[in-house]
Amino acid sequence: MNHWNHRQNCLLTILEEKIDQDCIIAFSGGVDSALLAQAASLCAQQKGHRVHAVTFQTALHPLRDLELTQTLAQELGLSHQVIEVDELRQAKIENNPKNRCYLCKKYLFTQLRSKAQSMGISLIMDGTNADDLQAYRPGIQALRELDIFSPLAEAGMTKEDVRAMAATYKLRVAARPSTPCLATRFPYNTPLCAAQMRAVEQGEALLRSLGMHNIRLRVHGDIVRIEIDPEAFPLLTSHREEIVAQLKLLGFTYITLDLEGFRSGSMDSSPRLEENTI
């Protein structure tokens, strides 16, 4: 048995043992939470239980993500609820502190824990995977403090494993690029502005419409730094004039291409961050 089959079987075994009641899954519509919801739903149905998918509508995620979660939840036959939150103010992260992810997750999942209690549910799960445990993810501390269960990580499933298993289930998001919150596009300790986050969302949508895959627009004052896969550089330069014009209309003064290319968590690589991580 190869490692992928072993981890897949491990995940299913964990879910079969854990799901002895109705449960809630924090459902972002990404491949991790979608796979977890699909696998958990199949296990729950065999035992006569229900999986409730709950999505947070926040200022920190692209508006199109909410539409996707609603469509995906319907396709998977999930009970789906949306909780609207103002995490910038309520979680006190307006100035993008270095522990933003911890503060945000603590606030969101406290709300989710309260929701679960009102429904008589004790089991809450999320889509943290094994790769997340190896990166700078202060939000995981908040999940542990609130007793949120992460079956994918428990089974040792990497992002690659998740995508492979999602493909076997024919999930529409199996190959969907990760879409972390829009706050990751701004340096720590700078104010988070709703208008600028929407501008980033629109700018990334533009590049995506031109055929680019992994995209981040990192904002440094009036400079926007474009991160894309190096193999997409020729595609970007072939649309250079259109991209510059559209990004300037969105309010960016200087348009730059990062020659290192796309890399997840590039805002976390600063030496100053490493000195101050929690």
Give a verbal description of the structure:
The protein is α/β, with parallel strands linked by helices and 278 residues long. It contains twelve helices and seven strands. The protein has helices at 3-18, 31-47, 63-76, 87-90, 100-118, 139-145, 151-154, 159-168, 194-209, 233-238, 240-249, 271-276; strands at 23-26, 51-57, 79-84, 123-125, 215-220, 223-228, 254-257. The strands form two sheets. A four-stranded parallel β-sheet has the order 3-2-1-4, sandwiched between helices. A three-stranded mixed β-sheet has the order 5-6-7, with helices on one face. The radius of gyration is 19 Å and the shape is globular.
End-to-end Cα distance: 39 Å
> Biggest sheet, in brief?
4 strands, parallel
Q: How does the overall form come out from the CA principal axes?
A: globular
Structural class, by secondary structure, is alpha/beta
Strand order of the largest sheet: 3-2-1-4
What series of H and E elements makes up the topology? HEHEHEHHEHHHHEEHHEH
Q: In what range is the share of β-strand residues?
A: 5-15%
Write down how many β-strands occur, each being a DSSP E stretch of 2 or more residues.
Answer: 7
Total count of helical runs of at least 4 residues: 12
The helix content, as a percent range, equals 40-55%
* Uncertain stretches: 271-278
- The Rg value, from CA coordinates, equals 19 Å
